[in-house]
Structure formats: structure tokens, C-alpha cells
């Protein structure tokens, strides 16, 4: 159905501008005036006038080498604004609910601010009795928590060095990382595998897995994690990890980040 038939108040010139923008996709990254004209069944002079206006506002760019047109940088700026306006708690909560319902373990969403991680979302399992099943707004040690290590693993070298410069490695259990060398080795493993684990590092008998949530630029904006008893988690670790990574991938896609999951 023609959109003009459905809503006669649409402005034709604006509609044509949007139609031109929508001509570009993964198979048509660059198009000439004649190609756009043929796609939309518009005369070249009409397309040229609209394209010139879009170019003036950086929504369309012209390739000087071949004379073809492509989407402009303004779309990237607007995409970043959309990403920043998204609410991690609102987007992530259904995934927390689904994971907790399936595995009967507590799930969390964490963000990083001022060299600390904060819980911004949580769905608690009735069977969970661990202290680390934290309340929204509470903090966990960066070097010992699965989510904390995800954020550290995704920092730049400069950021990480600055963070660790005066960091105190508090020992909480016999499994807690207590020095920089141990931590750096752990962070490299996290980068390689794409997720982090916490194996009785904060509390004995507790096991946690965390995965990064990324935005359109690949920056980690949060984590999604699941925590439960060591015995239960280890029994079903592969399935839990697979579903957690899928959830992280789905949430990240809503922030504009797209990456294929490894099988």
C-alpha cells in the first residue's frame, strides 16, 4: 500500500528524501544519481535536488573518486545518540527474567562508573542464599567479580594501568586474585574467550559467569551475569554460558553492536 494513501498528510518532498536514504543498504553502499533515479522512478533532476540538500546536512556524502553517493557521517552521530538514550535496565530485564526462570539462579546487570561496578538490575532466584546476590545499586570488587573483570579486560592499556596504579587487591577467599600478574593473565583469558567467571573468589561455594554488553562502537556499556552455587552452576555450565552469551549478544544488538556468535 502506498503510504500516501494510508496517510494523505505525508509531505512528498520529505518522503522522497527518506526513500532516497532507504535506497542504501549492505548491498548498495554507494549509488549513482541514475541508479537512485531508476530505483525510485524519479527523474534525475528531482533526485539531484534532494541529494544536494542531504549532502549539505551531511546525511549523504559524495565519493569524489567515482561521483557516487553514500550515507553520511551524520547518521553515525545520530546512531550514537540513540544508543546513549537506551536504558540498559529496561532492555536487559526480560533477559534476566528468562535466565533466572530457566536455570533458577540469580541474574544481574552491572554498569561501570567512577572505578566501581554497580548493580542496576537483578532477578533473584528463591534458592539463592549468597551475599553476592547484591541489591541494585550495590558494588562488587573489580578484581574478584566476574563482571568487574569483564570491564577491566575491555579497558585500553592506558585505562587499565591508571586503574591498577593504586588498586588494593583485597583477599576475600583462598581463590581471590591478589596481585597484578595474576590479574593480567586472567584478563587475557577473558579477552580470548569473550566472558568471565568468578570461582569462589568473593564467597566460598559461589560461582558466577558474566558477559559484556557493547554499544555500536564496541564499547562495553554493561554486563549481564548469573550467579549460583558452585555445584549447580558447574553441572550445567555449558548451557548456561551459551544462553548468557546469546542474551548479551541480543542486548548488545539493541545498542547497535552486531557480532556473530561462535558455534
Task: Describe the structure in your own words.
- The protein is built from 11 helices and 8 strands.
- With 263 residues, the chain is α+β, with helices and mostly antiparallel strands.
- It has a 6-stranded antiparallel sheet with strand order 5-4-3-8-7-6. Strands 1-2 form a two-stranded antiparallel ribbon.
Structural topology:
Blueprint: H1 3-6, H2 12-21, H3 33-40, H4 44-56, E1 60-62, E2 69-71, H5 74-85, H6 88-103, E3 106-113, E4 116-123, E5 139-140, H7 146-153, H8 157-164, H9 180-193, E6 196-199, E7 206-214, E8 220-229, H10 230-235, H11 237-254
Antiparallel strand pairs: 1-2, 3-4, 3-8, 4-5, 6-7, 7-8
Helix pairs in contact: 2-4, 6-11, 7-9
Which labels suit this protein?
6-stranded antiparallel β-sheet, two-stranded antiparallel ribbon, 11 helices, elongated, 263 residues, alpha+beta
Short description, anyone?
It is built from 11 helices and 8 strands. The chain is α+β, with helices and mostly antiparallel strands.
